[in-house]
Fold:
Amino acid sequence: MMDPTRRLFAVLLLPAVAWAAHLQMTYFLHPQTCESQSPVYLWTVSLIALAVLAGNGWLSRGMIHRGRRDVDRFMAIAALVLSIFFGLLVIGQTIPQFLLRPCD
Structure:
């Protein structure tokens, strides 16, 4: 089992990693999406990223109440805020996939 400090750092860094992975995967899958004329690949990547961010937010929310020190609570709150922020970024990057055709 991971010690609480490492778990907090993992929960704190995961939102940025999930967003960067989402961004890279959507760029990587764009040629296949353009070729197939179906944005399902991009929507799937966005849904996975949002699920990871929601799960991370849920974990960090639970860690807020279990934190014994003020630093632990601060890191858990920061992880929750980052999960929400990067979730909004993923949603913002997904909106053009619904509004534009794949090859635009």
